[in-house]
Amino acid sequence: MRDAREALMSGLTTEGKPVGRPLSPHLQVYRPQITSVLSIMHRFSGIWLGVGVLLLTWWLVALANGAGPFAVAQAFFASIIGKVILFLWTAALMFHFCNGIRHLAWDSGLGFEKSTYHASGWTVLAAAAFLTILVFVIGLAAG
Amino acid sequence: MANMSTVMMRSTLGRVRGLGAARSGLFEWWVQRVTAAALVPLSVWFVVSLLVHLGEKASSVALWAGKPWNGVLLLALLIALFRHLGLGLKVVIEDYIHAEAAKFATLMLMKAVLTLFWIAATVAVLKLAFAG
After folding, report:
1. Is the model's pTM score more than 0.95?
2. How many CB atoms lie within 10 A of CB B89?
3. For position A51, which CATH number holds?
4. Which of A45-49, A70-74, B3-7 has the least mean pLDDT?
5. How far apart are CA B98 and CA A3, in angstroms?
6. What average pLDDT does chain B have?
7. Cα distance between residue A78 and residue A39, in whole Å
8. What ipTM was predicted for this assembly?
């Protein structure tokens, strides 16, 4: 046992065997709600956008390297795998963008009423879906 | 014993082990919000620019990236983006990796990768800016 915090985490079962107490909250007992689901999605989309940032770096370096390397990057993003990645990245960006604005509003103390944060959550989902489709349709049309 | 409240609020063992606030948490929280606010206009500008120049050949995209104001906005985007991403991933790593050695190693690896990619992207933008 390392410290007081760890001491508080150990207990005994009804049979008297030592057991590590589980951490709370126990996520699996909660019914998914728009608030918790969007919070989890914000984190996942952020991590996925991190992968996108690495691809963005590759794209910029390829551009700086000239026509040959840039054509390789262009061909990757034009392929099926590239298009799927771009679509998922667009969706993640649009969601993280809209929900991020929702977070900034909360940080300035706005929108904490239950009806408001439920409505803003659904608005974020609708706006993100619309923007994702809009950007992708324009993108596919432009080649 | 200059500050009695500090002594009262923290356990003796906690103080000896150096647990508790490092007093830099608020700064990172604030930088996360400032970079988020900066990324709102910068990401709109970047996505619209990408859509405008989609499918163009390297030379015309490079011409766009090489214009002074586009270079400035690209560098601003990279600074805000990598700072925001680094702080976000730090929180994720700290939330899920509890063993000190593994947490430290993962944080350092994440920082190293992000720093290298950030420098690479910055060098690329500067090369494009000074090429023409």
Report:
1. no
2. 19
3. 1.20.1300.10
4. B3-7
5. 15
6. 90
7. 32
8. 0.83
| Residue (of B45, B53, B100, B35) closest to B72 by Cα position | B45
| Chain B, nearest residue to A54 by Cα | B117
Structure token pair of residue A141:
């049309």
* Nearest by Cα to B96 from A23, A129, A81: A23
A98 lies in which domain range? 32-142
CB contact under 8 A, B57 and A67: yes
Q: Which two tokens stand for residue A101?
A: 């604005």
Is the pLDDT reported for residue A42 higher than 80?
yes
- Assign A20 to helix, strand or coil: strand
B14, B92, B127: residue with CB nearest A64: B127
**Residues composing chain A:** 143
Candidates B14, B33, B59; nearest CB to A104: B33
Q: Which residues of A touch B90 (CB under 8 A)?
A: none
Domain range enclosing B35? 23-131
Query: What average pLDDT does the segment B25-45 reach?
Result: 94
Predicted local confidence at residue A122, as pLDDT: 97
d(CA A136, CA A87): 7
Task: Look at residue B11 and tell me if it is in a domain.
Answer: no
